[in-house]
Amino acid sequence: MWVWILFIAIVLVFLALDLGVFNRKEHVIKSKEAGIWTAVWVTVALSFSGVIYWLFSSGLVENPTGLTPNNAVLKYVTGYLIELSLSIDNVFVIAVIFSAFKIPPIYQHRVLFWGILGAIVFRGLMIVFGVALITKFEWIIYVFGVFLLWTAYKMLKSDDTDFDPKKSLVFRQLKKIYPITGTIHGNHFFVKRMGIKAATPLFVALIVIELTDVLFALDSIPAILAITADPFIVFSSNILAILGLRSMYFLISRMLEKFRYINYSLVVILAFVGLKMLFSHQIELPEWVSLTVISVALVAGVVASLAIPQKKEVLKE
User: Fold this and answer.
1) pTM score, whole prediction
2) Mind listing the pLDDT tens digit for each residue in 2-32?
3) Which end of the chain is more exposed for a tag (fewer CB within 10 A), N or C?
4) What are the residues whose beta carbons fall under 8 Å from the beta carbon of 234, sequence distance 6 or more?
5) Taking Cα atoms as reference points, which of 248, 229, 265, 216 lies closest to residue 79?
6) Domain segments of the chain: what residues?
7) InterPro entries from the entry (predicted)?
8) Are 155 and 86 in contact, with CB atoms under 8 Å apart?
9) Distance (Å) of CA 176 to CA 169, 215, 268
């Protein structure tokens, strides 16, 4: 239990340093700064695999699935790459939300900070629930597998440009609870107008991002549970991927058009883990196979996006 408490405490320290020290003064996050922080978070996450090896070799953490230290490390790295790759889809939606509510770049980091803090809590609860389901009801793995295949199909057929946050159920319900101001009031989530407490677009964007992340977690949690049901590996890989989401957003949100084929990478990954779940009792794939498929899918999507020139629309007179 102390390992869990220590890990959560370290995460909270990272978050406190982020907002209270490194980003105490609000500023627009440039691509160079975002790139440095993305490299830092990825390095921290991958270095944590050494901690995973130590914990599982020393027996300091519970090992309900009987993993060897080497297998634990492979499953952690594979799970982290899955969560990191699926986080890319979050970036596209977050960009749409910020655009819809006209959130200035200088305040976007503040919104994402509190959004990720809430996401840690929600995902923690969903992981505990998901692990408990798989442990108690073995057949639930087939339900998760079918759900992931259906999600992959929806992602293949969907068009993200159809998403309008201002037409969402969340926005409509929020308007019934709080009056919403039409303009930004600095970095405040709430302001008082004529003695009435009103929500600013910053708060609306935060709530929409928070609930959107819960929907994304419905895909990502079953995806990592296809790799392992060990609760600590699932939780740590998931949380470390989320911590790097902010810097990743500022790094690639300005280059969304360049990564137009990354969506197909995510489809392949979701379809693969879905099939892995469905055939988990018939076929046992070595962990390196999963790691290879996920890595190749991501690299192929990035290379295709950069190498294949974008077709220009021909205007008809």
Assistant:
1) 0.79
2) 898 899 898 888 888 776 666 667 777 888 8
3) C
4) 79, 127, 130, 131, 221, 224, 225, 228
5) 229
6) 2-306
7) Integral_membrane_TerC (IPR005496), Integral_membrane_TerC_rswitch (IPR022369)
8) no
9) 11, 22, 40
